[in-house]
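Need DUF2619 domain-containing protein's 3D structure for a figure. Predict it.
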Amino acid sequence: MINKIVLSMATIRVLSGSIEILAALLMLRFNQIEKALLVNSGLALVGPLVLLTTTTIGLVGMADKLSAGKLLWVLAGVSCIFIGILKK
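Structure prediction for DUF2619 domain-containing protein:
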């Protein structure tokens, strides 16, 4: 039997991958650099959202197994990733 949390995380990742493939097909269909960059910019929003969502679901699933200190380390790590992504 598949764990519900793992299934949720995998489903979100499959959906994210499908969005990436759709974006690539749109870029090919438009065949213009400006429109391809626009589509690519939209993907820049999807990636961090998917990361945050899947990480949150995983942490909720492991909350009873993690000590408060370890949970803080994980949150600090995810925060560093987002700071690195969002800072210019």
